[in-house]
Known about the structure:
Elements: H1 3-11, H2 13-34, H3 39-64, H4 69-87, H5 95-124, H6 128-156, H7 160-168, H8 171-185, H9 199-208, H10 210-240, H11 247-272, H12 274-289, H13 300-332, H14 335-363, H15 374-398, H16 400-403
Amino acid sequence: MTGGRVLAYGLLGLPLAFAALPVYVHLPRYYAAVAGMELALLGGILLAARLLDAAVDPFLGWLADRVPRRRMLALALPLFAAGFVALFTPPADGAAGWLLGALALTYLGFSAASVAYQAWGADVGADSAERTRLTAAREGCGLLGVILAAALPGLLAADPEAGVARLAWLLPPLLLLAALPAFALVGPGAPPPGPAAPPWPALSRVLADAAFRRLLAVFVANGIAAALPATLFLFFVADVLRAGAAGGPLLALYFVAGAAGLPLWVALAARVGRVGAWLAGMALSIVAFSGAALLGPGDVAAFAAICLLSGLALGADLAMPAALAADHGERLGQAGACFGVWNLVAKLNLALAAGLALPLLAAFGYAPGGESGLAALGLAYALLPLAFKALAAALLWRWRHFLENR
Protein backbone atom coordinates (compact mmCIF):
# COMPACT_ATOMS: atom_id res chain seq x y z
CA MET A 1 0.00 0.00 0.00
CA THR A 2 1.36 3.43 -0.96
CA GLY A 3 2.18 6.08 1.60
CA GLY A 4 -0.61 8.28 0.26
CA ARG A 5 -3.25 5.61 0.88
CA VAL A 6 -1.86 4.94 4.36
CA LEU A 7 -2.06 8.66 5.14
CA ALA A 8 -5.56 8.91 3.65
CA TYR A 9 -6.67 6.12 5.98
CA GLY A 10 -4.93 7.55 9.04
CA LEU A 11 -6.25 11.08 8.54
CA LEU A 12 -9.75 10.08 9.63
CA GLY A 13 -8.31 9.37 13.08
CA LEU A 14 -7.71 13.10 13.58
CA PRO A 15 -11.34 14.30 13.89
CA LEU A 16 -12.34 11.19 15.87
CA ALA A 17 -9.68 11.93 18.50
CA PHE A 18 -10.28 15.69 18.20
CA ALA A 19 -13.80 15.21 19.59
CA ALA A 20 -12.85 12.75 22.33
CA LEU A 21 -10.92 15.26 24.47
CA PRO A 22 -13.78 17.80 24.85
CA VAL A 23 -16.25 15.01 25.67
CA TYR A 24 -14.09 13.47 28.38
CA VAL A 25 -12.35 16.59 29.78
CA HIS A 26 -14.39 19.74 29.08
CA LEU A 27 -17.97 18.47 29.14
CA PRO A 28 -18.49 18.18 32.95
CA ARG A 29 -17.25 21.71 33.63
CA TYR A 30 -19.17 23.05 30.62
CA TYR A 31 -22.56 21.77 31.85
CA ALA A 32 -21.86 22.86 35.42
CA ALA A 33 -20.93 26.40 34.30
CA VAL A 34 -23.26 27.00 31.34
CA ALA A 35 -26.32 24.94 32.28
CA GLY A 36 -25.89 25.23 36.06
CA MET A 37 -26.33 21.48 36.46
CA GLU A 38 -25.71 19.96 39.89
CA LEU A 39 -22.61 17.79 39.99
CA ALA A 40 -24.44 14.76 41.40
CA LEU A 41 -26.97 14.79 38.55
CA LEU A 42 -24.25 15.48 36.01
CA GLY A 43 -22.12 12.60 37.32
CA GLY A 44 -25.06 10.21 37.22
CA ILE A 45 -25.85 11.09 33.60
CA LEU A 46 -22.22 10.73 32.52
CA LEU A 47 -21.87 7.37 34.29
CA ALA A 48 -25.10 5.97 32.79
CA ALA A 49 -24.13 7.11 29.30
CA ARG A 50 -20.60 5.65 29.57
CA LEU A 51 -21.85 2.25 30.78
CA LEU A 52 -24.44 2.12 27.99
CA ASP A 53 -21.76 3.08 25.48
CA ALA A 54 -19.43 0.32 26.64
CA ALA A 55 -22.21 -2.29 26.59
CA VAL A 56 -23.08 -1.50 22.96
CA ASP A 57 -19.53 -1.90 21.61
CA PRO A 58 -19.54 -5.71 21.25
CA PHE A 59 -22.80 -5.56 19.28
CA LEU A 60 -21.34 -2.88 17.03
CA GLY A 61 -18.33 -5.12 16.48
CA TRP A 62 -20.61 -7.96 15.41
CA LEU A 63 -22.47 -5.57 13.10
CA ALA A 64 -19.19 -4.40 11.54
CA ASP A 65 -18.57 -7.99 10.42
CA ARG A 66 -21.98 -8.19 8.75
CA VAL A 67 -22.07 -4.96 6.69
CA PRO A 68 -19.43 -3.21 4.57
CA ARG A 69 -17.09 -1.16 6.76
CA ARG A 70 -17.35 2.00 4.66
CA ARG A 71 -21.15 1.90 4.64
CA MET A 72 -21.18 1.64 8.43
CA LEU A 73 -18.74 4.56 8.64
CA ALA A 74 -20.81 6.66 6.26
CA LEU A 75 -23.90 6.15 8.44
CA ALA A 76 -22.09 6.64 11.77
CA LEU A 77 -20.14 9.83 11.05
CA PRO A 78 -23.18 12.15 10.56
CA LEU A 79 -24.73 10.82 13.80
CA PHE A 80 -21.46 11.50 15.59
CA ALA A 81 -21.17 15.05 14.21
CA ALA A 82 -24.79 15.92 15.03
CA GLY A 83 -24.54 14.58 18.56
CA PHE A 84 -21.26 16.39 19.23
CA VAL A 85 -22.60 19.77 18.10
CA ALA A 86 -25.76 19.20 20.14
CA LEU A 87 -23.70 18.44 23.26
CA PHE A 88 -22.25 21.94 23.31
CA THR A 89 -25.43 23.81 22.34
CA PRO A 90 -27.79 22.94 25.22
CA PRO A 91 -31.17 24.69 25.57
CA ALA A 92 -31.93 27.06 28.42
CA ASP A 93 -34.39 24.55 29.93
CA GLY A 94 -34.26 20.76 30.09
CA ALA A 95 -30.46 20.53 29.92
CA ALA A 96 -30.38 17.16 31.71
CA GLY A 97 -32.55 15.39 29.15
CA TRP A 98 -30.72 17.15 26.32
CA LEU A 99 -27.35 16.02 27.70
CA LEU A 100 -28.45 12.40 27.99
CA GLY A 101 -29.88 12.34 24.47
CA ALA A 102 -26.91 14.15 22.92
CA LEU A 103 -24.46 11.87 24.71
CA ALA A 104 -26.32 8.77 23.53
CA LEU A 105 -26.22 10.03 19.92
CA THR A 106 -22.55 11.07 20.16
CA TYR A 107 -21.42 7.82 21.75
CA LEU A 108 -23.40 5.68 19.29
CA GLY A 109 -21.98 7.50 16.27
CA PHE A 110 -18.45 7.62 17.67
CA SER A 111 -18.37 3.96 18.72
CA ALA A 112 -19.88 2.68 15.47
CA ALA A 113 -17.44 4.79 13.46
CA SER A 114 -14.45 3.71 15.57
CA VAL A 115 -15.20 -0.02 15.35
CA ALA A 116 -15.82 0.11 11.59
CA TYR A 117 -12.74 2.28 11.07
CA GLN A 118 -10.44 -0.03 13.02
CA ALA A 119 -11.82 -3.14 11.32
CA TRP A 120 -11.43 -1.44 7.92
CA GLY A 121 -7.73 -0.91 8.64
CA ALA A 122 -7.36 -4.58 9.56
CA ASP A 123 -8.99 -5.54 6.24
CA VAL A 124 -7.04 -3.34 3.85
CA GLY A 125 -3.64 -4.18 5.33
CA ALA A 126 -2.10 -6.96 3.25
CA ASP A 127 0.16 -8.26 6.04
CA SER A 128 1.27 -7.58 9.60
CA ALA A 129 3.77 -4.89 8.61
CA GLU A 130 1.17 -3.01 6.58
CA ARG A 131 -1.43 -3.23 9.33
CA THR A 132 1.16 -1.80 11.73
CA ARG A 133 1.73 1.17 9.38
CA LEU A 134 -2.00 1.77 9.09
CA THR A 135 -2.44 1.61 12.86
CA ALA A 136 0.47 3.98 13.42
CA ALA A 137 -0.95 6.45 10.87
CA ARG A 138 -4.35 6.31 12.58
CA GLU A 139 -2.93 6.80 16.07
CA GLY A 140 -0.48 9.49 14.96
CA CYS A 141 -3.22 11.54 13.32
CA GLY A 142 -5.32 10.91 16.43
CA LEU A 143 -2.60 12.44 18.59
CA LEU A 144 -2.57 15.51 16.35
CA GLY A 145 -6.33 15.76 16.83
CA VAL A 146 -5.93 15.64 20.62
CA ILE A 147 -3.27 18.37 20.50
CA LEU A 148 -5.54 20.58 18.37
CA ALA A 149 -8.49 20.04 20.70
CA ALA A 150 -6.34 20.96 23.70
CA ALA A 151 -4.99 24.16 22.13
CA LEU A 152 -7.92 25.60 20.18
CA PRO A 153 -10.48 26.56 22.89
CA GLY A 154 -8.11 29.16 24.33
CA LEU A 155 -7.47 30.55 20.85
CA LEU A 156 -11.12 30.64 19.83
CA ALA A 157 -12.35 32.64 22.84
CA ALA A 158 -11.07 34.14 26.08
CA ASP A 159 -13.85 32.37 28.00
CA PRO A 160 -13.13 28.60 28.21
CA GLU A 161 -16.77 27.58 27.83
CA ALA A 162 -17.27 29.80 24.79
CA GLY A 163 -14.09 28.39 23.26
CA VAL A 164 -15.33 24.82 23.68
CA ALA A 165 -18.73 25.71 22.20
CA ARG A 166 -17.04 27.17 19.13
CA LEU A 167 -14.75 24.16 18.93
CA ALA A 168 -17.79 21.89 18.52
CA TRP A 169 -18.70 23.53 15.19
CA LEU A 170 -15.29 22.65 13.76
CA LEU A 171 -15.93 18.90 13.95
CA PRO A 172 -18.38 18.51 10.99
CA PRO A 173 -16.05 20.14 8.41
CA LEU A 174 -13.05 18.28 9.86
CA LEU A 175 -14.90 14.97 9.51
CA LEU A 176 -15.84 15.79 5.93
CA LEU A 177 -12.31 16.85 4.94
CA ALA A 178 -10.84 13.69 6.48
CA ALA A 179 -13.49 11.26 5.22
CA LEU A 180 -13.35 12.32 1.55
CA PRO A 181 -9.75 11.16 0.87
CA ALA A 182 -10.27 8.03 2.95
CA PHE A 183 -13.33 6.95 0.97
CA ALA A 184 -11.74 7.95 -2.33
CA LEU A 185 -8.28 6.40 -1.94
CA VAL A 186 -8.51 3.50 0.53
CA GLY A 187 -9.90 0.22 -0.78
CA PRO A 188 -13.15 -1.26 0.49
CA GLY A 189 -11.56 -4.14 2.41
CA ALA A 190 -13.08 -7.56 2.74
CA PRO A 191 -16.78 -8.02 1.88
CA PRO A 192 -19.16 -9.12 4.65
CA PRO A 193 -18.74 -12.86 5.30
CA GLY A 194 -22.34 -13.77 4.57
CA PRO A 195 -25.82 -13.78 6.14
CA ALA A 196 -26.03 -12.34 9.62
CA ALA A 197 -25.57 -14.77 12.48
CA PRO A 198 -26.63 -14.06 16.08
CA PRO A 199 -24.11 -11.75 17.78
CA TRP A 200 -23.33 -13.80 20.87
CA PRO A 201 -21.88 -16.87 19.10
CA ALA A 202 -19.64 -14.56 17.07
CA LEU A 203 -18.44 -12.74 20.16
CA SER A 204 -18.03 -16.02 22.04
CA ARG A 205 -15.78 -17.31 19.27
CA VAL A 206 -13.54 -14.26 19.63
CA LEU A 207 -13.35 -14.60 23.41
CA ALA A 208 -12.77 -18.35 23.13
CA ASP A 209 -9.51 -17.74 21.28
CA ALA A 210 -6.68 -18.22 23.80
CA ALA A 211 -4.23 -15.87 22.09
CA PHE A 212 -6.76 -13.03 21.87
CA ARG A 213 -7.74 -13.53 25.54
CA ARG A 214 -4.09 -13.25 26.54
CA LEU A 215 -3.69 -10.09 24.48
CA LEU A 216 -6.77 -8.66 26.20
CA ALA A 217 -5.29 -9.48 29.63
CA VAL A 218 -2.12 -7.56 28.79
CA PHE A 219 -4.22 -4.73 27.38
CA VAL A 220 -6.29 -4.50 30.58
CA ALA A 221 -3.24 -4.31 32.88
CA ASN A 222 -1.47 -1.85 30.59
CA GLY A 223 -4.65 0.18 30.09
CA ILE A 224 -5.21 0.63 33.81
CA ALA A 225 -1.56 1.69 34.13
CA ALA A 226 -2.25 4.43 31.57
CA ALA A 227 -5.73 5.38 32.78
CA LEU A 228 -4.72 5.96 36.41
CA PRO A 229 -2.33 8.86 35.72
CA ALA A 230 -4.72 10.18 33.06
CA THR A 231 -7.47 10.37 35.69
CA LEU A 232 -5.22 12.01 38.29
CA PHE A 233 -2.99 14.18 36.07
CA LEU A 234 -4.62 17.56 36.72
CA PHE A 235 -4.96 16.84 40.45
CA PHE A 236 -1.25 15.96 40.64
CA VAL A 237 -0.11 19.05 38.73
CA ALA A 238 -2.32 21.41 40.74
CA ASP A 239 -1.94 20.01 44.27
CA VAL A 240 1.43 18.23 44.34
CA LEU A 241 3.44 20.40 41.95
CA ARG A 242 1.41 23.54 42.82
CA ALA A 243 1.49 24.49 39.15
CA GLY A 244 -2.08 24.21 37.91
CA ALA A 245 -1.49 26.64 35.04
CA ALA A 246 1.16 24.32 33.63
CA GLY A 247 -1.33 21.47 33.11
CA GLY A 248 -2.21 22.39 29.52
CA PRO A 249 1.38 22.82 28.26
CA LEU A 250 2.48 19.64 30.01
CA LEU A 251 -0.36 17.68 28.38
CA ALA A 252 0.58 19.13 25.01
CA LEU A 253 4.23 18.13 25.56
CA TYR A 254 3.15 14.57 26.39
CA PHE A 255 1.03 14.15 23.26
CA VAL A 256 3.52 15.88 20.96
CA ALA A 257 6.21 13.48 22.21
CA GLY A 258 3.82 10.58 21.56
CA ALA A 259 3.25 11.69 17.97
CA ALA A 260 6.98 12.24 17.40
CA GLY A 261 7.84 8.80 18.75
CA LEU A 262 5.38 6.80 16.65
CA PRO A 263 7.66 6.41 13.58
CA LEU A 264 10.46 5.18 15.83
CA TRP A 265 8.27 2.44 17.30
CA VAL A 266 7.08 1.37 13.86
CA ALA A 267 10.69 1.13 12.68
CA LEU A 268 11.65 -0.85 15.78
CA ALA A 269 8.67 -3.19 15.29
CA ALA A 270 9.91 -3.95 11.78
CA ARG A 271 13.19 -5.16 13.31
CA VAL A 272 12.16 -6.91 16.51
CA GLY A 273 8.40 -7.47 16.09
CA ARG A 274 5.42 -5.70 17.66
CA VAL A 275 5.73 -7.55 20.97
CA GLY A 276 9.41 -6.62 21.28
CA ALA A 277 8.67 -2.98 20.48
CA TRP A 278 5.78 -2.92 22.95
CA LEU A 279 8.01 -4.39 25.67
CA ALA A 280 10.63 -1.72 24.96
CA GLY A 281 7.96 0.97 25.26
CA MET A 282 6.81 -0.45 28.59
CA ALA A 283 10.39 -0.47 29.86
CA LEU A 284 10.86 3.19 28.85
CA SER A 285 7.58 4.11 30.53
CA ILE A 286 8.59 2.39 33.78
CA VAL A 287 11.99 4.10 33.82
CA ALA A 288 10.51 7.50 32.97
CA PHE A 289 7.74 7.33 35.55
CA SER A 290 9.75 5.85 38.41
CA GLY A 291 10.72 9.24 39.85
CA ALA A 292 7.30 10.89 39.73
CA ALA A 293 6.44 9.92 43.32
CA LEU A 294 9.46 11.91 44.57
CA LEU A 295 8.34 15.23 43.08
CA GLY A 296 6.97 18.12 45.09
CA PRO A 297 6.03 21.80 44.81
CA GLY A 298 7.87 23.58 42.01
CA ASP A 299 9.32 20.47 40.35
CA VAL A 300 7.78 21.38 37.00
CA ALA A 301 10.97 20.98 34.96
CA ALA A 302 11.56 17.48 36.29
CA PHE A 303 7.95 16.57 35.61
CA ALA A 304 8.23 17.98 32.09
CA ALA A 305 11.11 15.55 31.49
CA ILE A 306 8.88 12.72 32.74
CA CYS A 307 6.09 13.86 30.39
CA LEU A 308 8.53 13.94 27.49
CA LEU A 309 9.91 10.44 28.06
CA SER A 310 6.59 8.83 28.97
CA GLY A 311 5.06 10.56 25.94
CA LEU A 312 7.66 8.91 23.72
CA ALA A 313 6.67 5.58 25.26
CA LEU A 314 3.00 6.34 24.53
CA GLY A 315 3.58 5.70 20.82
CA ALA A 316 4.30 2.02 21.50
CA ASP A 317 1.14 1.71 23.63
CA LEU A 318 -0.97 3.23 20.87
CA ALA A 319 0.34 1.38 17.83
CA MET A 320 1.50 -2.07 18.92
CA PRO A 321 -1.48 -3.55 20.82
CA ALA A 322 -4.00 -2.34 18.22
CA ALA A 323 -1.84 -3.76 15.41
CA LEU A 324 -1.65 -7.10 17.22
CA ALA A 325 -5.44 -7.03 17.71
CA ALA A 326 -5.88 -6.37 13.98
CA ASP A 327 -3.78 -9.44 13.17
CA HIS A 328 -5.80 -11.65 15.48
CA GLY A 329 -9.05 -10.25 14.07
CA GLU A 330 -7.95 -11.13 10.54
CA ARG A 331 -6.79 -14.59 11.65
CA LEU A 332 -10.22 -15.26 13.15
CA GLY A 333 -12.04 -13.64 10.23
CA GLN A 334 -13.88 -11.37 12.69
CA ALA A 335 -12.00 -8.08 12.88
CA GLY A 336 -15.17 -6.19 13.74
CA ALA A 337 -16.05 -8.44 16.67
CA CYS A 338 -12.45 -8.25 17.93
CA PHE A 339 -12.46 -4.47 17.93
CA GLY A 340 -15.91 -4.34 19.48
CA VAL A 341 -14.58 -6.29 22.46
CA TRP A 342 -11.34 -4.28 22.34
CA ASN A 343 -13.14 -0.93 22.59
CA LEU A 344 -15.36 -2.24 25.38
CA VAL A 345 -12.27 -3.17 27.40
CA ALA A 346 -10.61 0.20 26.67
CA LYS A 347 -13.63 2.07 28.03
CA LEU A 348 -13.90 -0.15 31.09
CA ASN A 349 -10.21 0.52 31.77
CA LEU A 350 -11.00 4.23 32.16
CA ALA A 351 -14.01 3.53 34.35
CA LEU A 352 -12.05 1.07 36.52
CA ALA A 353 -9.20 3.55 36.96
CA ALA A 354 -11.54 6.23 38.25
CA GLY A 355 -13.40 3.72 40.41
CA LEU A 356 -10.14 2.47 41.89
CA ALA A 357 -8.19 5.71 42.36
CA LEU A 358 -10.75 8.27 43.52
CA PRO A 359 -12.33 6.27 46.39
CA LEU A 360 -8.84 5.20 47.51
CA LEU A 361 -7.68 8.82 47.66
CA ALA A 362 -10.82 9.86 49.54
CA ALA A 363 -10.17 7.11 52.08
CA PHE A 364 -6.71 8.60 52.69
CA GLY A 365 -8.15 12.07 53.23
CA TYR A 366 -7.35 13.72 49.91
CA ALA A 367 -9.62 16.52 48.69
CA PRO A 368 -8.82 18.68 45.64
CA GLY A 369 -7.20 21.95 46.64
CA GLY A 370 -6.51 20.80 50.20
CA GLU A 371 -3.34 20.00 52.12
CA SER A 372 -4.15 16.51 53.37
CA GLY A 373 -3.70 13.24 51.52
CA LEU A 374 -1.07 14.58 49.10
CA ALA A 375 1.29 11.69 49.79
CA ALA A 376 -1.52 9.30 48.85
CA LEU A 377 -2.13 11.28 45.67
CA GLY A 378 1.54 11.01 44.72
CA LEU A 379 1.56 7.27 45.37
CA ALA A 380 -1.67 6.68 43.45
CA TYR A 381 -0.50 8.81 40.53
CA ALA A 382 3.01 7.36 40.26
CA LEU A 383 3.47 4.03 42.02
CA LEU A 384 0.16 2.27 41.40
CA PRO A 385 0.51 2.70 37.61
CA LEU A 386 4.04 1.31 37.81
CA ALA A 387 2.71 -1.85 39.47
CA PHE A 388 0.13 -2.37 36.71
CA LYS A 389 2.69 -1.57 34.01
CA ALA A 390 5.11 -4.12 35.48
CA LEU A 391 2.31 -6.71 35.55
CA ALA A 392 1.50 -5.97 31.91
CA ALA A 393 5.17 -6.31 30.92
CA ALA A 394 5.48 -9.61 32.78
CA LEU A 395 2.39 -11.02 31.08
CA LEU A 396 3.53 -9.80 27.67
CA TRP A 397 6.94 -11.42 28.12
CA ARG A 398 5.40 -14.68 29.30
CA TRP A 399 2.98 -14.89 26.36
CA ARG A 400 5.16 -13.26 23.71
CA HIS A 401 5.27 -16.37 21.50
CA PHE A 402 1.45 -16.63 21.47
CA LEU A 403 0.81 -12.99 20.61
CA GLU A 404 3.15 -12.22 17.71
CA ASN A 405 1.93 -13.38 14.33
CA ARG A 406 4.71 -12.26 12.01
